[in-house]
């Protein structure tokens, strides 16, 4: 299936099929042509073979970014936050290749998998914090609230803005957890929380 052989495998398969078709055309059809028809056919074959030799165009990162930042309505040229695309951005979207669409879809799937794992870490940390003193939890909540800006809507905001908020949230959560809750945990829960915090915020100073 296409998913099993991947985009590069599909390109190779298509290249092999095209080469077979071109070879058959040259062997069976071209000899029967004459004059202007022969000249046009040879010119067309030369262009096709030159394009095949050059290989598929590279994936354009700016096109992938636009595809990922497109609003929910796929028929409207607008960003996820409602801003209309410029003429240049609309042109890039219209020229997006199959591989660029696949790359954007794969990155969206990867982001979803990362977010699921992230939420699982948060769920476990919230279970752990329930074992800490009530006063420490109040201090933790107040500290966290003072650091965070409003959360963007993941369905409408640009993906870069959503990711930036997640990074800020992870840094604020782990810093507040270290200050107010970690000192109250026993050895086993302390070790679990420390590992989860490190996964949420690899740049933390634990």
Give an overview of the whole structure:
The chain has 206 residues and is mostly helical. It contains 8 helices and no strands. Helix 5 packs antiparallel against helix 8. The longest helix is centred in the middle third of the chain and has 32 residues. It is elongated, with a radius of gyration of 27 Å. 12% of the residues are buried.
* Proportion of residues in helical segments: over 70%
Arithmetic mean of pLDDT: 81
Helix-strand pattern: HHHHHHHH
Distance, first to last CA: 46 Å
Portion in beta strands: under 5%
Summarize the main sheet: none
Query: Unreliable runs, pLDDT <50, ≥5 residues?
Result: 1-7
Question: What's the total number of strands?
Answer: 0
Q: What is the alpha-carbon Rg in Å?
A: 27 Å
Structural class estimated from helices and strands: mainly alpha
Q: Which word captures the global form?
A: elongated
Helices, by number, come to: 8
What's this, in brief?
The protein is an all-alpha fold and 206 residues long.
Secondary structure elements and pairings:
Elements: H1 2-29, H2 35-54, H3 61-68, H4 87-94, H5 98-129, H6 134-147, H7 159-180, H8 187-200
Helix pairs in contact: 3-5, 5-8, 6-7
């Amino acid at each position: 299936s296409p998913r099993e052989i991947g985009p590069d495998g599909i390109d190779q398969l298509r290249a092999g099929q095209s080469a077979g078709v071109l070879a058959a055309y040259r062997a069976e059809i071209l000899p029967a042509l004459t004059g202007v028809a022969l000249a046009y056919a040879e010119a067309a074959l030369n262009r096709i073979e030159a394009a095949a030799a050059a290989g598929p165009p590279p994936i354009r990162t700016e096109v992938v970014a636009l595809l990922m930042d497109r609003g929910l309505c796929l028929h409207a040229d607008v960003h996820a936050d409602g801003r209309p695309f410029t003429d240049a951005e609309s042109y890039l979207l219209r020229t997006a290749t199959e591989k660029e669409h696949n790359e954007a879809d794969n990155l969206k799937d990867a982001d979803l998998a990362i977010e699921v794992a992230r939420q699982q870490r948060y769920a476990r940390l919230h279970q752990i914090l329930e074992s800490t003193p009530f006063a420490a939890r109040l201090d933790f909540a107040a500290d966290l609230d003072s650091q965070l800006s409003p959360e963007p809507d993941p369905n409408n905001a640009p993906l870069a803005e959503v990711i930036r908020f997640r990074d800020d949230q992870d840094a604020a959560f782990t810093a507040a957890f270290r200050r107010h809750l970690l000192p109250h945990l026993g050895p086993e829960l302390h070790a679990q929380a420390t590992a989860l915090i490190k996964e949420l915020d690899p740049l933390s100073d634990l």
